[in-house]
Amino acid sequence: MTTTTETRPFEAEVAQVLHLVTHSLYSHKEIFLRELISNASDACDKLRFESIANPDLLAGDAELHIDVSWDKDARTITIADNGIGMSRDEVVANIGSIASSGTRRFLEAMGAEQKADARLIGQFGVGFYSAFVVAGRVTVLTRRAGAAPEDGVKWESDGRGEYTLEAATVPARGTTVVLHLKDGEDEFLDGWKLRGLVRKYSDHVAFPIRMPKETPAGDDDDAKQDDAAPAWETANDASALWTRPKSEISDEEYQAFYKSLGHDFNDAAAWTHNRVEGSQSFTTLLYLAAKPPFDLMMGGRDERKGLKLYIKRVFIMDAAEELLPNYLRFVRGVVDADDLPLNVSREILQHNRQLERIKGACVKRVLDLIEKLSRDEPEKFAAFLKAFGNTLKEGIVEDAGNRERIAKLLRFASTRGDGDAQTVSLDDYVGRMAPGQEAIWYVTADGYRAAAGTPQLEAFRAKDIEVLLMSDRIDEWMLGHLHEYAGKPLRHVAKGELPLDEAGKQKQEEAAKAAAPLLEKLKRLLGDRVEDVRVSARLTDSPACLAMSEWEMAPHLAHLLREAGQDVPESKPTLEVNPAHPLLQRVDGEADDARATDLATLLLEQAQLSAGAPLADPAAFVQRMNRLLAG
Questions:
Q1: Lesser CB count within 10 Å: N end or C end of the chain?
Q2: Are 180 and 139 in contact (CB under 8 A)?
Q3: E-strand stretches of 386-432
Q4: How confident is the model at residue 116 (pLDDT cuts 50, 70, 90)?
């Protein structure tokens, strides 16, 4: 056993976290208690789970609990648990270094926010360091369950870059954290204050949070504790909220549980609480977050911790990936199953039919909840879509079985909508389709103005046909999988040939015949830069636009993917022209081949810019424009 005291530096990222927390986190200082109690609860959960396979770990002390006490004379607060405890190596891994990606993710989020935000503490597994918000020195005494008393560990630090480690005799398993308060933090040495914080943040922790019973002698706030044998009383509800009947749970209790569960200061947007009985019995309590959590875009298993899996009230694991698909990663909550084995592993979960049924039920409940929000609380629903609409769109690709339900929830801007507000549903669109209109028309672009201003809309505006304006970067990818809705095909205004009635076809054929010499001239001038040049049925005012095949990728998306290093098949554009436009007439009448080439190339480049495609040679474009402007 190592007997000497060892001094070690924190890893660089941990030192950065400590600096941010201790120098920037002035509001919501009280979260330190929530986070340390949460860590203690996790330790009790882990012991309860490990003791299923190894009952000896409980060693006659099966009543798991968390104790919070204070000493006004010593100016300390102590949080102790009789959970799993830690070995020396675990102390180093969990406190002194990066045990997972959480610390680095926290720093990345901090860099984006430019300030330490209390909502982030705990979301990335760095909650322990919040102790240094109020403490100038922190001491940890711990002993792992099953280890001998002399194998305990003492860890201590002032949070300034180093910590000490030494062996210690720890009589009982578990972890004790002692906070030596900074000057000016004496408000946290008040018993009523601490009790209030326990009730506010940790009331629904499933283990008793015990505090010394204060005697009524003199002023209650200044009552002394019996250090030799304090009488403990439970300060929290200490029951699994989801096991109680819904009729007995207030909205305030639901919201308090959500905040404890999700390390969030915001209220949840909505929740659904259900008990399923029958051949398979389980309880779900699922919440929609009001604002995006900072791990929203992290799809990996280590980061996704939105749902917790319990079996018969025993916490098993954070199992978000097995309980909900990735596109619903904004959901927080718990699933408590009665029929799964307690020794279940993540590998077993991946191939468990019972869990597949639970997962299907969770997806249904969440989609039901979002639909209810859209019907009953439109303002909340609009805020929800602003926060999570793009994430929900991923479900169009990932969840074919619920594709129509998800599509029903989406909202878009439209040529008949209110500016760039995304308020038009597919049902709205279908309900006001013109007689004889067979398709749902849309355009994609890299921004609302680009979508609303694209020349391919001109013929649709002239015929008063509504077009959905899709400007989110995910839209083009999503629409590759959403081919129809309510029996109506979805069609891009720039892809394929427009459907025309007999009169329209005849007019188009006559225009193409009349413009045949011009089309041949443009093909010669542009050469292999285009696949084809043809008369457009889309244009009424603009001189030219690009047209794509049905399966061709939109230029703005192809550009984004290439910028991201993806391989994108090269394709030549088809140029559609409006022969009645003065620019086309100028090309037709231009005898100077060099000037005609400049004009034709400029038409192509304008069409590419309108479609969101980058120019291969911007400098040449500017020179060409200058030559033509100069006459």
A1: C
A2: yes
A3: 413-414
A4: very low
In whole angstroms, what is the distance from residue 631 CA to residue 532 CA?
A: 29
CB 546 within 8 A of CB 574: yes
Dihedral angle, C-alpha 420, 424, 430, 433, nearest 10 °: -40
CATH topology of domain 243-376: Ribosomal Protein S5; domain 2 (3.30.230)
Q: Is the separation of the CB atoms in 467 and 443 below 8 Å?
A: yes
Fold type of domain 502-629: Four Helix Bundle (Hemerythrin (Met), subunit A) (1.20.120)
Q: Is the pLDDT of residue 630 over 70?
A: yes
Average pLDDT over residues 201-221: 76
Range 302-309 average pLDDT:
69
**Residues 397-445: pLDDT tens digits?**
999 999 999 999 999 999 998 888 899 999 999 999 988 899 999 999 8
**CATH architecture entry for 411-492:** 3-Layer(aba) Sandwich (3.40)
User: Which positions ≥6 away from 332 have C-beta within 8 Å?
Assistant: 258, 261, 262, 264, 268, 286, 287, 289, 293, 306, 307
Please name the residue that has the structure tokens 């530096």. Answer: 9
Sheet of 76-81, strand order: 6-9, 162-168, 152-157, 135-143, 174-181, 76-81, 66-71, 209-212, 232-234
Strand order in 532-535's β-sheet? Answer: 532-535, 574-577, 544-547
Domain ranges of the chain: 6-237, 243-376, 411-492, 502-629
pTM for this prediction: 0.72
pLDDT given at position 265: 76
Q: What is the pLDDT of residue 299?
A: 43
Choose which CATH entry (3.30.565.10, 3.40.50.10840, 3.30.70.1560, 3.30.450.370) describes domain 6-237.
3.30.565.10
